[in-house]
Design brief:
Elements: H1 7-14, H2 24-47, H3 53-68, H4 73-90, H5 93-110, H6 113-132, H7 141-211, H8 218-243, H9 257-270, E1 274-278, H10 288-308, E2 313-320, E3 324-332, H11 347-357, E4 361-367, E5 370-378
Helix pairs in contact: 2-3, 3-4, 3-5, 4-5, 4-6, 5-6, 5-7, 7-8, 7-10, 9-10, 10-11
């Protein structure tokens, strides 16, 4: 995975917004550090002879404020400012300044831009007051400024690291979802190819099996079954090759409209239908993409006609102009119920999907006692 970032992505990456949270490890580390420092302050309060209780209490209070950053950086920063202000009244501002320098790491890790700028301004102002205030003991605030800068740099580095990790996790999740969708799309494609090719030939086989009992048609039905089975095996090999990183041969012309119409006519006539054809499927004005879609429409319609059509003439009309290619298949509705053949009930949906995916118009339904399938596709 490439790790290079565009300028826009970098700006998003460095943006200091709300909603930052410490990780579980960071929360545990902060609690451990705060607990240890408070324990040492309490221990020193009782074990150091002549110690100032007020100094210990202020130190404990300022250290406890660090724990507030686990819940609310804003409240914790306000509390730190309050403790800092009280420390000037008790003369313990130096002890609080140390804690404030440590808190810079948490502010940079958790705060947003306005909070960070406010904290920096308050820390510099407090340092200046301590440095230039009326104090009997000179205080070198430069050390505290350096320590606060280093602590802030550590906090900001952690912020960037966790933000980068979160972004990479999101990218991995998105890529995993894309791969899952690609697998599902490939499965749907394989299922569609099997439905459009293998199911058609099996329909022919099932239809002619019913006609084997008739001595007058048994020979032709046996030949039709043999041809359909051979074509089914060829198409099956083709689908397997496509699923296995692309076809290795071109023996199956799945997008040849003229061949699809010829094959459909042969199958209709074998099933006892007369066929009327109109139009030239080899018209050069038909683009290859449109030809592929129309060939699939012919094949799927042929499957449905062989299953459900009544006795009579099947009409195949192809009108081609400079703007559209209009394919119409018209078959007689059955007058009596025929033996039910298996159906996946997805043929019409797939035909409509193919046509509309090519910016065309599709319709299928009963018209004046016929079942009419119509597909109009632009050729420009």
């Amino acid at each position: 995975m490439a790790l290079d970032q565009s300028p826009r992505e970098s700006r998003e990456f460095l943006r200091l917004g709300r909603g930052e949270r410490l990780s579980a490890i960071e929360r545990i580390a902060v609690l451990v550090i705060v607990s240890v420092i408070i324990a040492l302050d309490v221990l020193g309060l009782f074990t150091t002879p002549g110690g100032n209780p007020i100094t210990s209490v202020v130190s404990i209070a300022s250290t406890a404020v660090l724990a507030l950053y686990l819940w609310s950086p804003l409240i914790a920063t306000c509390a730190m400012g309050l403790v800092f202000g009280l420390s000037f009244l008790t003369g313990t501002e130096t002890q609080v300044l140390i804690t404030a320098a440590v808190a810079a790491a948490l502010v940079m890790r958790l705060g947003w831009t306005s909070l960070i700028l406010s904290y920096i301004g308050g820390f510099l102002l407090s340092s200046a007051i301590i440095a230039f205030g009326d104090s009997t003991v000179p205080v070198n605030v430069g050390i505290y400024l350096i320590f606060a800068t280093l602590a802030g740099a550590v906090g900001f580095a952690l912020r960037l690291a966790f933000a980068r990790g979160s972004r990479l996790e999101r990218e991995l999740e998105e890529r995993a979802e894309q791969e899952r969708q690609a697998v599902l799309a490939e499965r749907r494609w394989i299922a569609g190819e099997l439905h459009d090719s293998i199911a058609h030939h099996l329909t022919v086989v099932a239809l002619h099996v019913q006609m084997l009992e008739d001595p007058q048609t048994s020979t032709d039905s046996q030949e039709a079954i043999r041809v359909a089975a051979r074509k089914a095996m060829t198409d099956l090999r083709f689908v397997i090759e496509l699923a296995d990183d692309g076809p290795q041969s071109s023996s199956v012309q799945t997008g040849d409209l003229a061949a699809a119409i010829d094959e459909a006519q042969s199958e209709f006539e074998s099933a006892g239908h007369s066929v009327a054809r109109e139009g030239d499927p080899q018209d050069e004005r038909i683009p290859r993409a449109v030809e592929i879609v129309l060939a699939r429409i012919v094949r799927e319609s042929a499957t449905n006609i062989l299953k459900y059509a009544g006795q009579g003439e099947v009409q195949i009309q192809l009108l081609v102009t400079d703007e559209i290619a209009h394919l119409t298949l018209r078959s007689p509705l059955p007058t009596t119920p025929r033996r039910e053949l298996s159906s996946s009930r997805t043929g019409l949906g797939r035909m409509a999907e193919r046509v509309m995916g090519a910016s065309g118009e599709f319709s299928a339904g009963e018209v004046d006692g016929f079942w009419v399938v119509s597909a109009r596709l632009p050729v420009v």
